[in-house]
Automatic annotation (TrEMBL):
Residues 33-52 bind DNA. InterPro entries: DNA-bd_HTH_TetR-type_CS, Homeodomain-like_sf, HTH-type_TetR-like_transc_reg, HTH_TetR, Tet_transcr_reg_TetR-rel_C_sf. It comes from the Bacteria. Residues 10-70 form the HTH tetR-type domain. It comes from Neobacillus mesonae. GO terms for molecular function: DNA binding. The keyword Methyltransferase does not apply. This is TetR family transcriptional regulator. One of its GO terms (biological process) is regulation of DNA-templated transcription. Keywords: DNA-binding.
Length: 207
């Protein structure tokens, strides 16, 4: 669908992507202006729609681009041969913090997607994000040493409880961000809180 755009030279692609990410991250979907995007990217509006069709398709492309880039970098770095569940989860938190430092604008955009309330795209993205979350959790749980978990509780239930715990923690942080003036998440604070939950969950579910 985006072949014409992907055939452009990399410098021009980067200009358009960076301009669009900045505009959507700062203003949200409904308030983002394609006029501002083309001005920043130094292209015509006709060309932007030639490449993407419409504003929604541009937004969908940007989400896939940012998510795929971050996910690709994440899975390059994480050691999936680490069989201890919580050691692997700690790795994941550390890697995410590193990626946040390396790709702040991409994370700002993805955070804006999670906070997005636009009726035009909200339901579509909620479904999309849920599917991606399920896929990535499944990948993260591959080849885990389940012998460390307690025998008196079904392992499936343990993993569900852990998953739900961190989903709820994520939801709470996003809700706090919605109420804050700049929609910011204190990721360092979140990392400390996650460690506290790790301690509780290890005591609850490991032998």
């Amino acid at each position: 669908m985006f072949t014409k755009f992907l055939n452009l030279d990399q410098e021009k692609q980067d200009r358009i992507i960076n301009a669009a990410i900045k505009e959507f991250a700062q203003k949200g979907y409904d308030n983002a202006s394609t006029n501002e995007i083309v001005k920043e990217a130094e292209i015509s509006k006709g060309l932007l729609f030639h490449y993407f069709g419409n504003k929604k398709q541009l937004y969908l492309f940007l989400f896939d681009y940012c998510y795929d880039l971050i996910a690709d970098e994440f899975f390059k770095k994480i050691d999936l041969s680490e069989a201890d569940f919580f050691s692997r989860m700690r790795q994941a938190v550390i890697i995410k913090m590193e990626l946040l430092a390396n790709y702040p604008e991409l994370f700002n955009f993805l955070q804006a997607v999670y906070l997005e309330e636009s009726k035009e795209i909200k339901q579509e993205f909620e479904n999309k994000l849920k599917q991606l979350l399920e896929i990535n959790f499944a990948k993260m749980y591959e080849n885990i040493d389940t012998s460390k978990f307690r025998d008196d509780i079904e392992q499936e239930k343990i993993l569900k409880i852990i998953t739900w715990t961190f989903e709820k923690l994520s939801d709470e942080e996003l809700n706090k961000a919605k109420l804050s003036p700049n929609h910011e998440i204190d990721y360092q604070k979140v990392r400390i809180e996650v460690e506290q939950y790790f301690d509780v969950l290890i005591k609850a579910f490991y032998k």
